[in-house]
Amino acid sequence: MSESPTFDHGKVTVIYVLGGPGAGKGTQCANLVKDFGFCHLSALPAGDLLRAEQNREGSQFGSLIQTCIKEGTIVPMEVTIKLLDNAMQAAMAENRLGDGWQDGRGRFLIDGFPRKMDQAVKFDETVCLSSVVLYFSTTEEVLLERLLVRGKTSGREDDNVESIKKRFRTYKLDTMPVIEYYTSQGKVAEVDSTGTVEEVHALAAQVVRDALTGKYSQSPN
Ligand SMILES: Nc1ncnc2c1ncn2[C@@H]1O[C@H](COP(=O)(O)OP(=O)(O)OP(=O)(O)O)[C@@H](O)[C@H]1O
Ligand SMILES: O=c1ccn([C@@H]2O[C@H](COP(=O)(O)O)[C@@H](O)[C@H]2O)c(=O)[nH]1
């Protein structure tokens, strides 16, 4: 028997944001939230939620998350989906004002998720059916260069050549099939993220505008 989702996708718009490690997902999500206004759009970075859980005193998942992040592997879906579901419920409970947040409505950019097919299917079924995947594509050379620059100041345990290679492998093995799956459903909007932050932003903003006006769903939010 299938569970009914926590959120009605006719009221809650979920935009998954995918792309290789260092493609610019976090940078673009932050700019999109600024652009569309905090009241209109909320960004939930899955990796940040996992890092916060890793550092939370008493977390039973701390060392599991730490190992997965260092090894570039995917944390078991139950952990990540629960964190995202909780974060979405907390955002909805804030009773935000503004377009898209009245009467049980909400709009979320879920950054860096789903990374694996099992997560994609489970989240769509049990939390909220997604509207579209905003997919940032570029070359591995560009990704590597950006990550090594970020690694000079990020303090992230996985911004080093060894972990980056593992993350690239996981991306190809686990995440590309997710992108292919949603492509076959006509739900992927690909944005070339090789250009400047501003150039990429202009393209991504159009995808979000389209998603918020119902281009990718039957019931506009
Ligand atoms: N268009 C761009 N041009 C040049 N540098 C960029 C661009 N977009 C992002 N960056 C830089 O590249 C690095 C990676 O960007 P960001 O953290 O947004 O990527 P990400 O896709 O969220 O990465 P991860 O999946 O590893 O969390 C950052 O240092 C960021 O400042
Ligand atoms: O859905 C997810 C998202 C992330 N992870 C793990 O976190 C790291 C870092 O993620 P970033 O998006 O680059 O911040 C990633 O390599 C995975 O190990 C995950 O398991 N599931």
UniProtKB/TrEMBL annotation:
<dbReference type="GO" id="GO:0019205">
    <property type="term" value="F:nucleobase-containing compound kinase activity"/>
</dbReference>
<feature type="region of interest" description="NMPbind">
    <location>
        <begin position="45"/>
        <end position="75"/>
    </location>
</feature>
<protein>
    <recommendedName>
        <fullName>Uridylate kinase</fullName>
        <ecNumber>2.7.4.14</ecNumber>
    </recommendedName>
</protein>
<feature type="binding site">
    <location>
        <position position="150"/>
    </location>
    <ligand>
        <name>ATP</name>
    </ligand>
</feature>
<dbReference type="Pfam" id="PF00406">
    <property type="entry name" value="ADK"/>
</dbReference>
<feature type="binding site">
    <location>
        <position position="167"/>
    </location>
    <ligand>
        <name>a ribonucleoside 5'-phosphate</name>
    </ligand>
</feature>
<keyword id="KW-0808">Transferase</keyword>
<dbReference type="GO" id="GO:0005634">
    <property type="term" value="C:nucleus"/>
</dbReference>
<dbReference type="GO" id="GO:0009123">
    <property type="term" value="P:nucleoside monophosphate metabolic process"/>
</dbReference>
<keyword id="KW-0665">Pyrimidine biosynthesis</keyword>
<dbReference type="GO" id="GO:0006221">
    <property type="term" value="P:pyrimidine nucleotide biosynthetic process"/>
</dbReference>
<feature type="binding site">
    <location>
        <begin position="112"/>
        <end position="115"/>
    </location>
    <ligand>
        <name>a ribonucleoside 5'-phosphate</name>
    </ligand>
</feature>
<feature type="region of interest" description="LID">
    <location>
        <begin position="149"/>
        <end position="159"/>
    </location>
</feature>
<feature type="binding site">
    <location>
        <position position="119"/>
    </location>
    <ligand>
        <name>a ribonucleoside 5'-phosphate</name>
    </ligand>
</feature>
<comment type="function">
    <text>Catalyzes the phosphorylation of pyrimidine nucleoside monophosphates at the expense of ATP. Plays an important role in de novo pyrimidine nucleotide biosynthesis. Has preference for UMP and dUMP as phosphate acceptors, but can also use CMP, dCMP and AMP.</text>
</comment>
<dbReference type="GO" id="GO:0005524">
    <property type="term" value="F:ATP binding"/>
</dbReference>
<keyword id="KW-0067">ATP-binding</keyword>
<dbReference type="GO" id="GO:0005737">
    <property type="term" value="C:cytoplasm"/>
</dbReference>
<dbReference type="InterPro" id="IPR027417">
    <property type="entry name" value="P-loop_NTPase"/>
</dbReference>
<feature type="binding site">
    <location>
        <begin position="73"/>
        <end position="75"/>
    </location>
    <ligand>
        <name>a ribonucleoside 5'-phosphate</name>
    </ligand>
</feature>
<dbReference type="GO" id="GO:0006207">
    <property type="term" value="P:'de novo' pyrimidine nucleobase biosynthetic process"/>
</dbReference>
<keyword id="KW-0418">Kinase</keyword>
<feature type="binding site">
    <location>
        <position position="156"/>
    </location>
    <ligand>
        <name>a ribonucleoside 5'-phosphate</name>
    </ligand>
</feature>
<feature type="binding site">
    <location>
        <position position="51"/>
    </location>
    <ligand>
        <name>a ribonucleoside 5'-phosphate</name>
    </ligand>
</feature>
<feature type="binding site">
    <location>
        <position position="195"/>
    </location>
    <ligand>
        <name>ATP</name>
    </ligand>
</feature>
<dbReference type="InterPro" id="IPR033690">
    <property type="entry name" value="Adenylat_kinase_CS"/>
</dbReference>
<comment type="similarity">
    <text>Belongs to the adenylate kinase family. UMP-CMP kinase subfamily.</text>
</comment>
<dbReference type="GO" id="GO:0016776">
    <property type="term" value="F:phosphotransferase activity, phosphate group as acceptor"/>
</dbReference>
<feature type="binding site">
    <location>
        <begin position="22"/>
        <end position="27"/>
    </location>
    <ligand>
        <name>ATP</name>
    </ligand>
</feature>
<comment type="subunit">
    <text>Monomer.</text>
</comment>
<keyword id="KW-0963">Cytoplasm</keyword>
<dbReference type="InterPro" id="IPR006266">
    <property type="entry name" value="UMP_CMP_kinase"/>
</dbReference>
<keyword id="KW-0547">Nucleotide-binding</keyword>
<dbReference type="InterPro" id="IPR000850">
    <property type="entry name" value="Adenylat/UMP-CMP_kin"/>
</dbReference>
<keyword id="KW-0539">Nucleus</keyword>
